Amino acid sequence: MIYDIEYETMPREALESIQARRLQATVSRVYATVPFYRNKFDEAGIGPGDINSVSDLPRLPFTTKQDLRDNYPYGMFAVPMDNVVRIHASSGTTGKPTVVGYTNRDINSWAELMARSLAAGGATRGDIVHNAYGYGLFTGGLGAHYGAEKLGASVIPVSGGNTKRQVVIMRDFGPTVLTCTPSYSLHLAEAAEDMGVSFRDLNFKCGIFGAEPWSENMRREIEEKLNLTAVDIYGLSEVIGPGVAVECHEAQAGLHIAEDHFIAEIIDPATGEILPHGETGELVLTSITKEAFPVIRYRTRDITSLNPEPCVCGRTMIRMNKISGRTDDMLIIRGVNVFPSQIESVLMEIEGVEPHYQMEIDRKDNLDTLTIRVEVSQSAFSDEVKELQRFEDRIANEIKELFGISAIVKLAEPKTIARSEGKAARVIDRREI
Ligand code: DLL
After folding, report:
1. Domain containing 184: what range?
2. 54 lies in the same domain as 170
3. How does pLDDT run across 351-389, given as a tens digit for each residue?
4. Whose CA is nearest to atom 20 of ligand 1?
5. Which alpha helices (DSSP H) does 132-257 contain, by range?
Protein backbone atom coordinates (compact mmCIF):
# COMPACT_ATOMS: atom_id res chain seq x y z
CA MET A 1 0.00 0.00 0.00
CA ILE A 2 1.21 3.52 -0.75
CA TYR A 3 0.41 5.66 2.29
CA ASP A 4 0.70 9.09 0.72
CA ILE A 5 -0.16 8.51 -2.90
CA GLU A 6 -0.05 12.20 -3.85
CA TYR A 7 3.51 12.83 -2.72
CA GLU A 8 5.04 9.40 -3.10
CA THR A 9 4.04 9.07 -6.75
CA MET A 10 4.34 12.74 -7.72
CA PRO A 11 5.79 13.43 -11.20
CA ARG A 12 9.43 14.48 -10.89
CA GLU A 13 8.87 17.95 -12.27
CA ALA A 14 6.22 18.82 -9.70
CA LEU A 15 8.39 17.34 -6.96
CA GLU A 16 11.37 19.43 -8.01
CA SER A 17 9.38 22.64 -7.91
CA ILE A 18 8.17 21.80 -4.40
CA GLN A 19 11.76 21.07 -3.41
CA ALA A 20 12.94 24.41 -4.79
CA ARG A 21 10.31 26.33 -2.88
CA ARG A 22 10.96 24.49 0.37
CA LEU A 23 14.72 24.77 0.00
CA GLN A 24 14.48 28.51 -0.49
CA ALA A 25 12.30 28.89 2.59
CA THR A 26 14.66 26.74 4.70
CA VAL A 27 17.77 28.63 3.62
CA SER A 28 16.15 31.99 4.40
CA ARG A 29 15.02 30.77 7.76
CA VAL A 30 18.35 29.33 8.91
CA TYR A 31 20.13 32.46 7.70
CA ALA A 32 17.82 34.56 9.85
CA THR A 33 17.77 32.37 12.95
CA VAL A 34 20.98 30.30 13.29
CA PRO A 35 24.19 32.33 13.69
CA PHE A 36 26.27 29.32 12.62
CA TYR A 37 24.60 29.21 9.18
CA ARG A 38 24.61 32.97 8.76
CA ASN A 39 28.38 33.08 9.39
CA LYS A 40 29.06 30.12 7.15
CA PHE A 41 27.01 31.57 4.28
CA ASP A 42 28.57 35.01 4.72
CA GLU A 43 32.04 33.47 4.62
CA ALA A 44 31.14 31.66 1.40
CA GLY A 45 29.76 34.92 -0.01
CA ILE A 46 26.32 33.48 -0.58
CA GLY A 47 22.93 34.60 0.67
CA PRO A 48 19.39 33.21 0.66
CA GLY A 49 18.61 35.30 -2.46
CA ASP A 50 21.13 33.23 -4.45
CA ILE A 51 19.24 29.96 -3.98
CA ASN A 52 16.49 29.79 -6.59
CA SER A 53 16.46 26.14 -7.56
CA VAL A 54 17.74 22.77 -6.39
CA SER A 55 20.67 23.13 -8.78
CA ASP A 56 21.90 26.06 -6.64
CA LEU A 57 22.28 23.79 -3.61
CA PRO A 58 25.96 22.92 -4.26
CA ARG A 59 26.82 26.60 -3.78
CA LEU A 60 26.06 26.25 -0.08
CA PRO A 61 28.74 25.05 2.36
CA PHE A 62 28.59 21.58 3.97
CA THR A 63 27.64 21.00 7.59
CA THR A 64 29.57 18.34 9.52
CA LYS A 65 29.16 16.37 12.73
CA GLN A 66 31.93 18.56 14.18
CA ASP A 67 29.85 21.69 13.48
CA LEU A 68 26.98 20.19 15.46
CA ARG A 69 29.34 19.31 18.30
CA ASP A 70 30.79 22.82 18.33
CA ASN A 71 27.26 24.14 18.84
CA TYR A 72 26.37 21.66 21.59
CA PRO A 73 23.70 21.45 22.89
CA TYR A 74 21.19 23.89 21.37
CA GLY A 75 23.24 26.23 19.15
CA MET A 76 21.84 24.84 15.89
CA PHE A 77 18.17 25.16 16.87
CA ALA A 78 16.24 27.47 14.55
CA VAL A 79 13.27 28.11 16.85
CA PRO A 80 12.98 29.34 20.45
CA MET A 81 12.89 26.59 23.10
CA ASP A 82 9.23 27.48 23.67
CA ASN A 83 8.41 25.85 20.35
CA VAL A 84 10.46 22.71 20.93
CA VAL A 85 8.36 19.78 22.12
CA ARG A 86 10.86 16.91 21.92
CA ILE A 87 14.60 16.40 22.27
CA HIS A 88 16.59 13.38 21.09
CA ALA A 89 20.33 12.77 21.00
CA SER A 90 22.75 10.49 19.21
CA SER A 91 24.57 7.96 21.36
CA GLY A 92 27.83 9.90 21.43
CA THR A 93 30.11 6.89 21.35
CA THR A 94 32.64 8.92 19.36
CA GLY A 95 32.52 12.09 21.44
CA LYS A 96 29.89 14.52 22.67
CA PRO A 97 26.38 13.47 21.74
CA THR A 98 24.51 15.46 19.12
CA VAL A 99 21.33 17.01 20.46
CA VAL A 100 18.38 17.49 18.13
CA GLY A 101 14.98 19.13 18.62
CA TYR A 102 11.48 18.91 17.14
CA THR A 103 8.51 21.27 17.02
CA ASN A 104 4.99 19.94 17.03
CA ARG A 105 4.93 20.15 13.27
CA ASP A 106 8.27 18.29 13.03
CA ILE A 107 6.87 15.46 15.17
CA ASN A 108 3.88 15.31 12.89
CA SER A 109 5.93 15.19 9.66
CA TRP A 110 8.16 12.54 11.20
CA ALA A 111 5.14 10.42 12.14
CA GLU A 112 3.86 10.81 8.56
CA LEU A 113 7.23 9.72 7.20
CA MET A 114 7.28 6.69 9.46
CA ALA A 115 3.69 5.78 8.57
CA ARG A 116 4.79 5.90 4.92
CA SER A 117 7.82 3.79 5.71
CA LEU A 118 5.88 1.11 7.55
CA ALA A 119 3.34 0.99 4.72
CA ALA A 120 6.17 0.69 2.18
CA GLY A 121 7.44 -2.29 4.17
CA GLY A 122 4.03 -3.95 3.91
CA ALA A 123 2.23 -2.78 7.07
CA THR A 124 -1.41 -1.62 7.11
CA ARG A 125 -3.78 -0.26 9.74
CA GLY A 126 -4.93 -3.79 10.54
CA ASP A 127 -1.46 -4.82 11.70
CA ILE A 128 0.03 -5.27 15.16
CA VAL A 129 3.54 -3.83 15.33
CA HIS A 130 6.05 -5.37 17.74
CA ASN A 131 8.35 -2.37 18.15
CA ALA A 132 11.67 -3.54 19.59
CA TYR A 133 13.68 -0.46 18.66
CA GLY A 134 14.97 1.14 21.86
CA TYR A 135 12.80 3.88 23.37
CA GLY A 136 14.64 6.86 24.80
CA LEU A 137 17.08 9.38 23.40
CA PHE A 138 17.59 7.01 20.43
CA THR A 139 15.13 7.93 17.68
CA GLY A 140 14.25 4.36 16.66
CA GLY A 141 11.66 3.50 19.33
CA LEU A 142 9.56 6.66 19.40
CA GLY A 143 9.98 7.19 15.65
CA ALA A 144 8.48 3.81 14.78
CA HIS A 145 5.90 4.16 17.55
CA TYR A 146 4.42 7.43 16.28
CA GLY A 147 4.50 6.13 12.71
CA ALA A 148 2.62 2.95 13.60
CA GLU A 149 -0.02 4.97 15.44
CA LYS A 150 -0.33 7.43 12.56
CA LEU A 151 -0.85 4.49 10.20
CA GLY A 152 -3.61 3.29 12.50
CA ALA A 153 -1.89 0.02 13.39
CA SER A 154 -1.72 -1.30 16.95
CA VAL A 155 1.71 -0.82 18.45
CA ILE A 156 3.30 -2.90 21.19
CA PRO A 157 5.94 -0.55 22.69
CA VAL A 158 8.20 -3.34 23.89
CA SER A 159 11.54 -1.50 23.29
CA GLY A 160 14.86 -3.38 23.26
CA GLY A 161 16.03 -5.99 25.77
CA ASN A 162 14.36 -8.52 28.03
CA THR A 163 14.44 -10.87 25.09
CA LYS A 164 12.70 -13.87 26.65
CA ARG A 165 9.75 -11.73 27.61
CA GLN A 166 9.64 -10.46 24.02
CA VAL A 167 9.31 -14.02 22.75
CA VAL A 168 6.35 -14.63 25.06
CA ILE A 169 4.71 -11.43 23.80
CA MET A 170 5.35 -12.43 20.19
CA ARG A 171 3.72 -15.77 20.84
CA ASP A 172 0.76 -14.51 22.87
CA PHE A 173 -0.09 -11.11 21.32
CA GLY A 174 0.20 -12.24 17.69
CA PRO A 175 2.14 -9.28 16.25
CA THR A 176 2.34 -9.20 12.44
CA VAL A 177 5.06 -6.59 11.88
CA LEU A 178 8.48 -6.54 13.54
CA THR A 179 10.54 -3.38 13.92
CA CYS A 180 14.08 -3.58 15.35
CA THR A 181 17.71 -3.65 14.25
CA PRO A 182 18.57 -6.55 11.91
CA SER A 183 21.04 -7.94 14.44
CA TYR A 184 18.42 -7.93 17.18
CA SER A 185 15.94 -9.72 14.93
CA LEU A 186 18.38 -12.63 14.74
CA HIS A 187 18.82 -12.56 18.49
CA LEU A 188 15.04 -12.79 18.85
CA ALA A 189 14.96 -15.73 16.44
CA GLU A 190 17.58 -17.54 18.43
CA ALA A 191 15.89 -16.88 21.77
CA ALA A 192 12.59 -18.12 20.33
CA GLU A 193 14.23 -21.31 19.15
CA ASP A 194 15.75 -21.89 22.61
CA MET A 195 12.31 -21.50 24.13
CA GLY A 196 10.77 -23.95 21.68
CA VAL A 197 8.86 -21.20 19.82
CA SER A 198 9.03 -21.41 16.04
CA PHE A 199 8.71 -18.30 13.90
CA ARG A 200 6.77 -20.52 11.46
CA ASP A 201 3.97 -20.59 14.06
CA LEU A 202 4.06 -16.82 14.68
CA ASN A 203 2.04 -14.30 12.67
CA PHE A 204 4.79 -12.03 11.33
CA LYS A 205 4.54 -11.08 7.68
CA CYS A 206 7.13 -8.33 7.48
CA GLY A 207 10.01 -6.71 9.32
CA ILE A 208 11.30 -3.16 8.93
CA PHE A 209 14.92 -3.27 9.96
CA GLY A 210 17.57 -0.57 10.11
CA ALA A 211 19.87 1.62 12.21
CA GLU A 212 22.95 -0.41 11.21
CA PRO A 213 24.41 -1.76 7.96
CA TRP A 214 23.36 -5.24 6.86
CA SER A 215 24.17 -7.14 3.70
CA GLU A 216 21.87 -8.80 1.15
CA ASN A 217 23.03 -12.15 2.47
CA MET A 218 22.04 -11.13 5.98
CA ARG A 219 18.59 -10.27 4.60
CA ARG A 220 18.23 -13.77 3.17
CA GLU A 221 19.27 -15.26 6.48
CA ILE A 222 16.71 -13.14 8.39
CA GLU A 223 13.89 -13.85 5.94
CA GLU A 224 14.57 -17.54 6.20
CA LYS A 225 14.97 -17.68 10.00
CA LEU A 226 12.05 -15.37 10.82
CA ASN A 227 9.76 -16.40 7.98
CA LEU A 228 8.91 -12.82 6.92
CA THR A 229 9.70 -10.20 4.26
CA ALA A 230 12.55 -7.98 5.46
CA VAL A 231 12.95 -4.39 4.25
CA ASP A 232 15.64 -1.86 5.03
CA ILE A 233 14.92 1.50 6.68
CA TYR A 234 17.43 4.31 6.96
CA GLY A 235 17.70 7.51 8.91
CA LEU A 236 19.82 9.45 11.35
CA SER A 237 19.06 11.62 14.37
CA GLU A 238 20.70 14.70 12.87
CA VAL A 239 18.32 14.63 9.93
CA ILE A 240 15.11 13.48 11.71
CA GLY A 241 15.58 9.83 12.79
CA PRO A 242 14.29 6.74 10.94
CA GLY A 243 12.12 7.42 7.89
CA VAL A 244 14.56 9.34 5.68
CA ALA A 245 14.52 6.42 3.25
CA VAL A 246 12.91 3.00 3.10
CA GLU A 247 12.69 0.04 0.77
CA CYS A 248 9.36 -0.96 -0.70
CA HIS A 249 8.40 -4.58 -0.12
CA GLU A 250 7.39 -4.88 -3.78
CA ALA A 251 10.94 -4.51 -5.10
CA GLN A 252 13.24 -4.76 -2.03
CA ALA A 253 15.82 -3.11 -4.23
CA GLY A 254 17.04 0.19 -2.87
CA LEU A 255 15.53 2.67 -0.41
CA HIS A 256 13.17 5.40 -1.64
CA ILE A 257 14.32 8.74 -0.22
CA ALA A 258 11.51 10.99 1.07
CA GLU A 259 12.49 13.74 -1.34
CA ASP A 260 9.62 16.03 -0.45
CA HIS A 261 11.39 16.42 2.92
CA PHE A 262 15.06 15.83 2.12
CA ILE A 263 17.36 16.52 -0.82
CA ALA A 264 20.10 13.96 -1.33
CA GLU A 265 23.49 14.40 -2.98
CA ILE A 266 26.43 12.01 -3.31
CA ILE A 267 29.91 13.45 -2.99
CA ASP A 268 33.45 12.22 -3.17
CA PRO A 269 34.33 12.18 0.54
CA ALA A 270 37.92 13.20 -0.15
CA THR A 271 37.30 16.21 -2.41
CA GLY A 272 33.67 17.17 -1.73
CA GLU A 273 32.98 17.02 -5.46
CA ILE A 274 29.44 15.98 -6.47
CA LEU A 275 29.23 12.57 -8.10
CA PRO A 276 26.74 11.59 -10.81
CA HIS A 277 23.90 9.12 -10.20
CA GLY A 278 25.14 5.56 -9.93
CA GLU A 279 28.53 6.45 -8.48
CA THR A 280 29.33 5.50 -4.92
CA GLY A 281 30.28 8.12 -2.37
CA GLU A 282 29.17 9.91 0.79
CA LEU A 283 25.50 10.76 1.19
CA VAL A 284 24.79 14.44 1.91
CA LEU A 285 21.32 15.44 3.08
CA THR A 286 19.48 18.76 3.29
CA SER A 287 16.21 18.98 5.19
CA ILE A 288 13.58 21.19 3.57
CA THR A 289 10.61 20.97 5.91
CA LYS A 290 12.08 20.85 9.39
CA GLU A 291 11.49 23.74 11.78
CA ALA A 292 13.46 23.15 14.99
CA PHE A 293 16.61 21.56 13.61
CA PRO A 294 17.08 22.11 9.88
CA VAL A 295 20.30 20.83 8.36
CA ILE A 296 21.94 22.19 5.24
CA ARG A 297 24.12 19.80 3.22
CA TYR A 298 24.79 17.56 6.19
CA ARG A 299 27.63 15.10 5.57
CA THR A 300 26.23 11.80 6.85
CA ARG A 301 29.50 9.84 6.40
CA ASP A 302 27.33 7.00 5.06
CA ILE A 303 28.44 5.39 1.80
CA THR A 304 25.92 4.67 -0.95
CA SER A 305 24.85 5.57 -4.50
CA LEU A 306 21.62 6.89 -6.02
CA ASN A 307 19.45 5.07 -8.54
CA PRO A 308 16.98 7.25 -10.50
CA GLU A 309 15.42 4.29 -12.40
CA PRO A 310 11.63 4.05 -12.01
CA CYS A 311 10.54 1.40 -9.48
CA VAL A 312 7.92 -1.32 -9.98
CA CYS A 313 6.04 -0.08 -6.90
CA GLY A 314 5.00 3.16 -8.61
CA ARG A 315 6.82 5.48 -6.22
CA THR A 316 8.69 8.23 -8.05
CA MET A 317 11.08 9.02 -5.22
CA ILE A 318 14.71 8.29 -6.07
CA ARG A 319 16.28 5.20 -4.50
CA MET A 320 19.57 4.91 -2.66
CA ASN A 321 21.35 1.59 -2.54
CA LYS A 322 21.91 -0.18 0.75
CA ILE A 323 24.48 1.64 2.87
CA SER A 324 27.72 -0.27 2.50
CA GLY A 325 29.42 1.37 5.47
CA ARG A 326 30.56 4.69 6.83
CA THR A 327 33.54 6.75 5.78
CA ASP A 328 34.70 6.34 9.37
CA ASP A 329 34.19 2.59 9.70
CA MET A 330 36.07 1.70 6.57
CA LEU A 331 38.84 -0.59 7.67
CA ILE A 332 42.22 0.11 6.19
CA ILE A 333 44.21 -3.00 6.76
CA ARG A 334 47.73 -2.84 5.49
CA GLY A 335 46.52 -0.23 3.05
CA VAL A 336 43.59 -2.22 1.72
CA ASN A 337 40.19 -0.55 2.12
CA VAL A 338 37.39 -2.83 3.16
CA PHE A 339 34.02 -2.31 4.84
CA PRO A 340 32.79 -4.70 7.53
CA SER A 341 29.68 -5.31 5.40
CA GLN A 342 31.84 -6.70 2.56
CA ILE A 343 33.35 -9.21 4.93
CA GLU A 344 29.88 -10.02 6.25
CA SER A 345 28.79 -10.84 2.71
CA VAL A 346 31.58 -13.37 2.33
CA LEU A 347 30.88 -14.98 5.68
CA MET A 348 27.17 -15.35 4.98
CA GLU A 349 27.88 -17.20 1.73
CA ILE A 350 29.55 -20.03 3.61
CA GLU A 351 27.45 -22.98 4.66
CA GLY A 352 27.51 -23.57 8.42
CA VAL A 353 28.46 -19.98 9.31
CA GLU A 354 26.04 -18.16 11.60
CA PRO A 355 25.22 -14.43 11.28
CA HIS A 356 27.22 -13.56 14.39
CA TYR A 357 30.74 -12.31 13.97
CA GLN A 358 33.23 -9.78 15.22
CA MET A 359 36.35 -8.29 13.69
CA GLU A 360 39.32 -7.36 15.81
CA ILE A 361 42.10 -5.22 14.46
CA ASP A 362 45.44 -4.95 16.17
CA ARG A 363 48.74 -3.44 15.25
CA LYS A 364 51.84 -5.47 16.05
CA ASP A 365 55.29 -4.22 15.11
CA ASN A 366 53.64 -1.65 12.86
CA LEU A 367 51.66 -4.30 11.01
CA ASP A 368 47.89 -4.47 11.07
CA THR A 369 46.32 -7.80 11.85
CA LEU A 370 42.69 -8.67 11.31
CA THR A 371 41.14 -11.42 13.36
CA ILE A 372 37.64 -12.53 12.47
CA ARG A 373 35.77 -14.41 15.12
CA VAL A 374 32.78 -16.09 13.63
CA GLU A 375 30.23 -18.49 15.02
CA VAL A 376 29.39 -21.73 13.31
CA SER A 377 26.28 -23.80 13.65
CA GLN A 378 26.14 -26.65 16.12
CA SER A 379 26.29 -29.18 13.30
CA ALA A 380 29.31 -27.55 11.68
CA PHE A 381 31.08 -27.22 14.98
CA SER A 382 32.98 -30.43 15.06
CA ASP A 383 35.35 -31.61 17.74
CA GLU A 384 37.82 -32.72 15.10
CA VAL A 385 40.56 -30.13 15.28
CA LYS A 386 41.55 -30.86 11.69
CA GLU A 387 38.02 -30.20 10.45
CA LEU A 388 37.85 -26.87 12.22
CA GLN A 389 41.22 -25.90 10.85
CA ARG A 390 40.04 -26.63 7.32
CA PHE A 391 36.95 -24.53 7.82
CA GLU A 392 39.00 -21.61 9.12
CA ASP A 393 41.42 -21.86 6.23
CA ARG A 394 38.61 -21.89 3.73
CA ILE A 395 37.14 -18.63 5.09
CA ALA A 396 40.59 -17.02 5.28
CA ASN A 397 41.30 -18.06 1.69
CA GLU A 398 38.09 -16.58 0.38
CA ILE A 399 38.82 -13.27 2.10
CA LYS A 400 42.36 -13.30 0.79
CA GLU A 401 41.15 -14.00 -2.72
CA LEU A 402 38.45 -11.33 -2.74
CA PHE A 403 40.13 -8.49 -0.88
CA GLY A 404 43.79 -9.42 -0.76
CA ILE A 405 43.79 -9.29 3.04
CA SER A 406 45.28 -11.98 5.23
CA ALA A 407 42.87 -12.55 8.07
CA ILE A 408 43.16 -14.87 11.03
CA VAL A 409 39.85 -16.69 11.28
CA LYS A 410 38.79 -18.12 14.60
CA LEU A 411 35.68 -20.20 14.76
CA ALA A 412 33.62 -19.57 17.84
CA GLU A 413 31.31 -22.04 19.50
CA PRO A 414 27.61 -21.45 18.94
CA LYS A 415 26.23 -18.58 21.05
CA THR A 416 29.54 -17.29 22.35
CA ILE A 417 29.69 -13.94 20.53
CA ALA A 418 27.87 -11.18 22.40
CA ARG A 419 24.35 -10.47 21.09
CA SER A 420 23.16 -6.89 20.76
CA GLU A 421 19.85 -5.39 21.75
CA GLY A 422 20.34 -2.40 19.49
CA LYS A 423 23.14 -1.67 17.07
CA ALA A 424 25.63 -4.55 16.89
CA ALA A 425 29.29 -3.83 17.63
CA ARG A 426 31.02 -5.68 14.80
CA VAL A 427 34.44 -4.07 14.90
CA ILE A 428 36.92 -3.75 17.72
CA ASP A 429 39.84 -1.63 16.59
CA ARG A 430 42.69 -1.77 19.09
CA ARG A 431 45.18 0.08 16.96
CA GLU A 432 46.47 3.25 18.53
CA ILE A 433 47.31 5.55 15.73
O1 DLL B 1 19.91 4.83 13.71
C2 DLL B 1 17.92 6.07 13.18
C3 DLL B 1 17.23 4.80 12.82
C4 DLL B 1 16.47 4.14 13.75
C5 DLL B 1 17.28 4.33 11.52
C6 DLL B 1 15.79 3.00 13.41
C7 DLL B 1 16.60 3.18 11.16
C8 DLL B 1 15.85 2.50 12.12
P9 DLL B 1 21.33 7.27 14.69
O10 DLL B 1 21.39 6.52 15.98
O11 DLL B 1 21.56 8.74 14.72
O12 DLL B 1 19.92 7.09 14.04
O13 DLL B 1 22.37 6.58 13.73
C14 DLL B 1 22.45 6.98 12.39
O15 DLL B 1 23.08 4.75 11.72
O16 DLL B 1 24.28 7.57 9.90
C17 DLL B 1 24.05 5.16 9.61
O18 DLL B 1 25.43 5.11 9.76
C19 DLL B 1 23.41 4.10 10.49
N20 DLL B 1 22.20 3.60 9.86
C21 DLL B 1 20.92 3.93 10.10
N22 DLL B 1 20.08 3.20 9.32
C23 DLL B 1 20.87 2.40 8.55
C24 DLL B 1 20.62 1.41 7.56
C25 DLL B 1 19.34 5.90 13.66
N26 DLL B 1 19.40 1.08 7.18
C27 DLL B 1 23.46 6.12 11.66
N28 DLL B 1 21.69 0.82 6.97
C29 DLL B 1 23.48 6.45 10.18
C30 DLL B 1 22.94 1.14 7.34
C31 DLL B 1 22.21 2.65 8.90
N32 DLL B 1 23.23 2.02 8.28
Report:
1. 1-328
2. yes
3. 889 999 999 999 887 778 899 999 988 888 776 778 888
4. 211
5. 139-151, 163-173, 182-194, 216-226
